[in-house]
Each structure stands twice: as C-alpha cells, then as structure tokens.
Write a sequence for this structure.
C-alpha cells in the first residue's frame, strides 16, 4: 500500500471561495487558513491537553488519527510546490516539525514531518535556512537512530538533498563527524536491512559523504578496525565493532537483483575506498573480507555484466558500475596476489571479460557519419561527450587491470587459454591494440610466453603489431630490459594516476 497517496484536490467551489477571499498561498489554490488549521492540529498532537493517564496518552501517541493523517499527507504533497514550501518556512513550520520529531512517538507522523522537510529542502533558500538551524540539525541527525524504516528513508533523503547543496554540504559533513554514533547506525542499516529503497538511499548518502570528504572516509575506514582496549573480551564478542567493508558488501548483495542503480552506488563506494591505502587494506587485510569482496565482484563481471550474448550497446548502461568493479578488482589483485582466492585459473575468465569490454567499448565509440545524433543540438553533444568520457575511464581501468594479469600469466595458463578460446588471435589482437603503446613491456613479456606455446601465433601478432618489439633488441641485457620495464611502468602510472580520482565524478 502507498504510504503517501496523492490527496484529492479541493473542490471547485472550495477553491473559488478561497481565491475570492485572498486566502491562496502564492499562485496556488491552496488555502492559508486550512494550512494554519492543520499545523495547529499538529501542534496539539504533541502537546495534548488530556486528563488521561500517562500510559494511555503514550499509547495514543503511537497511532495517528486517520483524519489528521490525511490532512498532513496533503501538506506533504503540497510541499513540493515552491510557494507552499516558502509559506511553510515563513510560518516557522520547521520548528513545529522539530517539536514533533523531538516529542512524538508515532512513527508515521515522524516519517511525514521529515518527508515534508525533505521536500522543502529541495529549494536552495529553504535548504540553507534549515541547515543553519543547529537544533533542527541535531534533531534530524538523531532521526538516523530511528527504528522505523520509512522514517529512516525520509531522513536519508533529506540528508542527501542537503549534502548535494554546495553551500551547506560542509556543515552537514562536520555535524556527522561530530556524531560518531551515526557510523554505527548507518553500518547497522547496511548490514541488516532488507528494505531495498532504504539501502539505496543510505548508500547514496555514504557515497556522497566519501566523495565530499576524504578525512571522514578515513575515519570511517578506521572506525571498528581495532577493538577498544578497555572493552572486555566477552562483551566484544557479543557486540562486534562494525567494519565498513563487510557492511557495504552485505548491502550490495541485498540490492543486487532488485536495483541496478543501487548496486552501482555500492560499487562506487568500494572504488572510493581503494583511492586511499587504508581503504585497500580494509578490503584485503582480513582474508575473509578480501575473499568475499573478490568473489562478489568476480561473479558480477564473469556471470552478470557484459556477457557474450549481450549486445555491445549494453555497455552504455553498465560502464560506470564496471569501471568501479574493475578498479576494485585491480587494486585487490595488485596488493594480494598471493591469496588463495586469487588462484591463477581465475585469470582466464577475467581476461575474457576484460577483452569483451574493450571490444564493446570500441563498438560504442564508433559514431556513424551523418547520423541523427551528429545533427542534434548542443545539449545532446554534451551528453555524448560525457558518455565518451565514461567509456574512456572504463577503457583505461580495463587496460590497467589486463596488464597486471598479463604479467603473471604462465605457460600453462596461456596454453589453457588458447585451448578454451580466451586467448584467440582475435582477442589477443584486441588486447594488444588497447595495451599498446603504454604497456609495451607487458605485451612483449606475454609474447615471449606465448611463443613457448604457439610460435606461429606469436609471429603473427608480432607482425601485426610491430610496435610490440620496439622496446627490446637482441643486444638488450636483462638489466637494461628491467630498467626499461620499470621506466615504462612509471610513465604508465603517471598517465593513469588521475583515473581513481576521475571515477569519483561518475
């Protein structure tokens, strides 16, 4: 059932009567007098003048009168109109809602009040006013500890709206930093909730926070990593400290099948974690966490995204989530190659997925001449440019990851890849075309291993890509070859140094 059904519009006679009396709010047909009455009734719900016992009164506060609910839901719907939102602001409605949140024990009423504030915050002037009220800010952050999922959802929506306003974002980041318990509350939601809408919105809040403030992200990474020394062992076993990565993984598993956009959000959170050393360690330091992360992401790229029977254009829908996934997998692979879950036999499915992504990227980047897209206006051109940028980022990350895997391929793995088709001439050609010239030493090393397995194929690829041989001549000594390889990797690293940061804007 819809928790906030759209209310019926006022009757024509009522609207005309209110308009004739100058009772309208701005350019709307909504009545000021009616709204005053609803807000006055709302005040009475949290300050009841009743002779009933305290227990009866508390029980009554848990339920919302049906008529009052219908009226306050109508205000919730009306608050999407800027004139109404400004009028509510002028009438000091946020103070009334703050009183409700501080005193009411009715979950439905709390949800509606936060929802109205969330609608009002969509308008910049009101958002600045709400954010500058310290007391209201404290009450709203306290709502993140609520046990009611709908209230948590509306609170998260309001918080995300404020964090998206550059004028006030830093205010909310600092407030959140001053309330360490918010970390525990958000981790608890991510690790235990089955409400997909709530998980997506909370994920968007975390993603925005990490994107805005690296210092806060580092604090949350380290929070829970070490058990307090003064906490008894038996208590620590009953109340384990939350760790950010397992909580993110659990939420990602919940939203995976039901909300692709939500999965994209949680993959981007993991990618942001890998932009700092502490974040990478938070993933790989605990073998179980590293294994869970690797297995989830490996399953996504090898069995769900960009499959062999998918049309190449599907990459346009998956480019940002794939960029995040490959970035995290690459960071894990580069830092923990000795772990059991990174067995060499898993290289071939990853190679197959990476090359398929590169093939589809080439297809998506081809623009037919004189196409309808090329004749559109500036807005469409801007959209295409943004798509090209995202594809470029995905291509760079895929090449980086593929080069790392190529460096550890053995003769046995190459032979298996040729037998199973992951390293066919066509796929190797696609890989070389994208890896050269930035990864020439890697390509040359791969060719040397390939020559031991299939000399004819190695010769064909060398002939097709003569630049793969330019780094090495018969006179090169091993030490010189190593120096060349090291210098090439430095240049490559400089070229890709901006990729993790660029991903923050995807």
């Amino acid at each position: 059932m819809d928790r906030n059904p759209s209310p019926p519009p006022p009757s024509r006679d009522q609207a005309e009567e209110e308009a004739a009396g100058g009772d309208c709010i701005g350019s709307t047909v909504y009545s000021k007098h009616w709204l005053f009455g609803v807000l006055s009734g709302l005040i009475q719900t949290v300050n009841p003048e009743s002779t009933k016992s305290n227990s009866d009164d508390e029980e009554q506060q848990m339920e919302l009168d049906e008529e009052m609910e219908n009226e306050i839901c109508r205000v919730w719907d009306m608050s999407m109109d800027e004139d109404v939102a400004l009028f509510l602001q002028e009438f000091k409605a946020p103070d009334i809602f703050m009183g409700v949140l501080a005193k009411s024990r009715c979950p439905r009423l709390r949800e509606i009040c936060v929802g109205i504030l969330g609608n009002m915050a969509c308008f910049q002037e009101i958002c600045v006013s709400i954010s500058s009220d310290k007391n209201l800010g404290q009450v709203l952050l306290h709502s993140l500890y609520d046990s009611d999922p709908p209230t948590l959802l509306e609170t998260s929506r309001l918080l995300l709206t404020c964090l998206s306003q550059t004028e006030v974002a830093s205010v909310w980041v600092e407030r959140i930093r001053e309330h360490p318990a918010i970390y525990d509350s958000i981790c608890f939601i991510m690790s235990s909730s089955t409400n997909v809408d709530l998980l997506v919105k909370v994920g968007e809040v975390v993603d925005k926070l990490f994107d805005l403030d690296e210092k806060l992200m580092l604090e949350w990474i380290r929070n829970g990593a070490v058990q307090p020394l003064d906490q008894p062992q038996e208590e620590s076993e009953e109340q384990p400290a939350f760790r950010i990565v397992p909580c993110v993984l659990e939420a990602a598993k919940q939203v995976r099948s039901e909300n692709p956009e939500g999965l994209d959000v949680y993959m981007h959170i993991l990618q942001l974690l890998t932009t700092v050393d502490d974040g990478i360690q938070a993933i790989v330091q605990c073998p179980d966490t590293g294994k869970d992360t690797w297995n989830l992401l490996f399953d996504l790229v090898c069995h769900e995204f960009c499959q062999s029977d998918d049309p190449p254009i599907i990459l346009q829908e998956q480019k940002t989530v794939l960029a995040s996934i490959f970035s995290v997998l690459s960071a894990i692979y580069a830092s923990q190659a000795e772990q059991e879950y990174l067995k060499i036999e898993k290289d071939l499915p990853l190679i197959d997925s990476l090359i398929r992504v590169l093939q589809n990227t080439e297809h998506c980047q081809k623009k037919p001449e004189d196409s309808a897209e090329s004749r559109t206006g500036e807005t469409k051109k801007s959209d295409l440019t943004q798509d090209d940028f995202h594809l470029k980022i995905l291509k760079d990350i895929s090449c980086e990851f593929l080069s790392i895997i190529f460096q550890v391929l053995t003769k046995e793995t190459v032979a298996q890849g040729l037998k199973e088709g992951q390293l066919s001439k066509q796929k190797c050609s696609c890989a070389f075309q994208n890896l050269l010239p930035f990864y020439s030493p890697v390509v040359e090393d791969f060719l040397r291993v390939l020559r031991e397995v299939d000399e004819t194929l190695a010769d064909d690829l060398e002939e097709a890509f003569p630049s793969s041989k330019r780094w090495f001549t018969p006179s090169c000594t091993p030490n010189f070859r190593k120096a060349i390889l090291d210098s090439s990797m430095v240049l490559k690293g400089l070229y890709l140094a901006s990729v993790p940061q660029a991903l923050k804007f995807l």
